[in-house]
Write a structure and sequence with these properties.
Layout lengths: L7 H15 L11 E5 L2 E10 L5 E2 L2 E2 H14 L4 E12 L4 H18 L2 E10 L7 E10 L16 E4 L5 H10 L16 H10 L3 E5 L5 H13 L2 E5 L7 H10 L13 E4 L1 H12 L8 E7 L6 E4 L5 E3 L13
Helix pairs in contact: 2-3, 5-8
Length: about 325
């Protein structure tokens, strides 16, 4: 299960098995989506599978999660998402009204994100060989001219921005799966981020890196960027927006909010001279109202992420081994 968690074991699986089997220059970028040329156009292309348990959770369900996740992967390349495919794997015996609710959520989320579900597939497996509904979505979108967003472009001096409070999706899933109560209702942050990215690119097309910190949380995404670019990242602990409900849940469970999954947040690396304007544009957008400057890219400790703590110390934020909670998306 750890190999599906988006951390070090997932990277080991990709680097040791899939990259050698499929190896090519496009795949070698290992970004949220591949950017490829088709004639004169640059397309972003992404695919992802969703096996979240439970199927329905506060703030969303597997259907809108599948749409938003793929839309966001495209947006992390700066693309304007256009078309999706969706494949449903259904377990024998799943109630038809459950399938209808999930399909309805897919359609509604696609319309809200401004994309078309253009094609799809359905398979059914025997009872006991699935878990109700699994969904795979693929998407394509157009990358505007002059946009070059990839993890290798992070450079010392970049400001590190996050689009809002972290950890909500992971805590929402934990609360319903484990029957935990944290004194306040916590809803997933699942949402499409393409509109937010468009607002950021209107400030400057020279955004260096975008990443949506899903499995493995902000910590995994920052470690991936640091290693891909050969730079270091320094966060300021008190600047990272952690909702009280997430902080309390993590304290209760012994978790670090930096490792908790998100589904409607992004992290951006932006040249310092553009950071204030980009941050202001983010805060004017509904999906970036809680945006914050949380750190910087540095020459020190290349390939590593560190946090300046509230007590004046420094700690290393390593890549998680697996996922704190399997099947989070």
């Amino acid at each position: 299960m750890g190999h599906g968690g988006g951390g070090a074991l997932s990277a080991e699986l990709v680097d040791g098995v899939f990259a050698p089997a499929f190896g090519n220059p496009v795949l070698a970028q290992l970004a949220d989506s591949a950017v490829v040329r088709l004639g004169a156009a640059r397309l972003a292309f992404s695919t992802d599978s969703y096996v979240v348990r439970p199927l329905f959770f506060p703030g969303g369900c597997i259907g809108d999660l599948a749409v938003n996740g793929t839309v966001n992967d495209l947006a992390m390349s700066g693309a304007v998402p256009a078309f999706l495919s969706t494949a449903f794997v259904l377990e024998e015996g799943v109630a038809m009204d459950v399938v209808e609710r999930v399909a309805g959520a897919v359609g509604a989320a696609a319309r809200a994100a401004g994309v078309t579900v253009a094609t799809g597939d359905t398979k059914v497996v025997e009872s006991g060989h699935g878990d109700g509904v699994y969904i795979t979505t693929s998407g394509i979108g157009l990358v505007p001219d002059g946009v070059d967003i990839r993890p290798q472009r992070a450079r010392p001096g970049d400001a590190v921005l996050v689009s809002g409070p972290i950890g909500l999706h992971g805590v929402a899933i934990m609360s319903v799966r484990e029957g935990l109560e944290f004194g306040v209702d916590v809803a997933s942050d699942t949402a499409p981020l393409a509109g937010l990215v468009e607002a950021m690119l209107r400030v400057t097309p020279d955004i260096h890196v975008l990443r949506d910190p899903t499995r493995g949380g902000l910590a995994a995404s920052l470690n991936e960027i640091a290693r891909a670019s050969g730079t270091g990242v320094r966060l300021t602990e008190r600047a990272v927006p952690v909702p009280d409900a997430v902080a309390n849940a993590c304290a209760f469970l012994g978790l670090d909010p930096l490792y908790v999954a998100n589904e409607g947040r992004l992290v951006a690396f932006v040249a310092r001279e553009h950071a204030d304007a980009v941050l202001a544009a983010m805060r004017e957008h509904p999906q970036g109202a809680g945006a914050a400057l949380v750190g910087e890219c540095v020459e020190d400790h290349p390939g590593m992420v560190v946090v300046s703590t509230g007590l004046g110390g420094t700690r290393v934020v390593d890549m998680p081994l697996g996922e704190q909670l399997p099947r989070i998306c």
